[in-house]
Amino acid sequence: MGTPFNQPLGGNEMPRFGGIATMMRLPHCVDPAPLDIGFVGVPLDVGTSNRSGTRFGPRQIRAESVMIRPYNMATRAAPFDCLNVGDLGDIATNPYSLLDSVAKIEQGYRRILDADCKAIALGGDHTMTLPILRAIHRKHGPVGLVHVDAHADVNDTMNGEKIAHGTPFRRAVEEGLLDCNRVVQIGLRGTGYEADDFDWCRRQGFRVVQAEECWNRSLTPLMEEVRARVGAGPVYLTFDIDGIDPAYAPGTGTPEIGGLTVPQALEIIRGMRGLDIVGADLVEVSPPYDAGSATALLAANLAYEILCVFPGVDCRA
Q1: This prediction's pTM
Q2: How far apart are CA 33 and CA 256, in angstroms?
Q3: Which is deepest, 168, 179, 214, 247, by most CB within 10 Å?
Q4: How many whole angstroms separate alpha carbon 96 and alpha carbon 107?
Q5: Taken in order 73, 77, 81, 85, is the CA torsion positive or negative?
Q6: What DSSP string describes 137-184?
Q7: Distances 294 to 64, 188, 251, 287 between C-alpha atoms, Å
């Protein structure tokens, strides 16, 4: 018996290299109301500080998603058997104005949330998470956060600007968008502007897991701690692709050596099963620096893995 929910277009119906390049070749849905979860692109790189190109991220992630099939053979998750999922297209950002783009992203997200649809955003630089959190705060109040990244993104300013891809979580704390004792940052590393860059996060109540704590170990035990810390309240997942080592994900604007491995990334995402996830994003994929589209392919698969741990997704024994 067929499922009443949207299904990805199969390779036997249309060759993988054909058809419209939506996320996982799902239907393109203008109206979020019929959906439980929608993928939405945020083509933004006005907030980047080094290598631009993340405006092309959503399109390339979609292009590399064509090989992903409906069933997760590792976790047995079957998202398309129990939830209605579609591709909501892109939020129209302003390539000439970061502040206007931020306003448009918040407005676009409010429309999705007002339709009782959850979203997985495909980025786009990390500035986009601030307006998303603003929209989510309007619906859910302060939320917990699981933040995978090489960088803390808590700068006060960048080149004198309060809004940029290195400042969103400082602004989110100041605006009361986060439940700070339920925030975990994983994968932070590299060099800093100040000796206490990561300590600012700890002073707010964040649990900071630097990359060195993750080397040569499974992160499954860490995720047990994360689930206990985040608890039963609403939580948002933001996954910066540069949290993963550039050996696996070179196509990003600010790569840092010594990062997470792909299996560790999967452990983090799969370890979020059972949490009250109210939204997620995957950001900072920059196709111009992505040899062979390896980073976009990884991002597409991680976005699917994120879908598989949303509340309401069943696992087939």
Answers
A1: 0.96
A2: 40
A3: 168
A4: 18
A5: negative
A6: HHHH-SEEEEEE-SS----S-BTTBSSSTT-HHHHHHHTT-EEEEEEE
A7: 9, 22, 8, 9
With 0-12 / 13-18 / 19 or more C-beta atoms within 10 angstroms meaning exposed / middle / buried, residue 70 is middle
Instruction: Give domain 23-308's CATH number out of 3.40.50.450, 1.25.40.20, 3.40.800.10, 1.10.10.10.
Output: 3.40.800.10
Coil/strand/helix, residue 121 = strand
- The string of pLDDT tens digits covering residues 191-228 is 988 888 899 999 999 999 999 999 999 999 999 999 99
Q: 172-202 burial, b if ≥16 CB within 10 A, otherwise e? A: bbeeebbbbebbbbbbbbbeeeeeebbebbe
> What pLDDT sits at residue 1?
44
What span, in angstroms and rounded, lies between the C-alpha atoms of 293 and 249? 9
Give residue limits of the domains in the chain: 23-308
- How far apart CA 215 and CA 302 sit, in angstroms, is 20
Side-chain-side CA neighbours of 84 within 13 Å: the count stands at 13
**pLDDT < 50 stretches in the chain:** 1
How far is 238 from 245, CA to CA, in rounded Å? 17
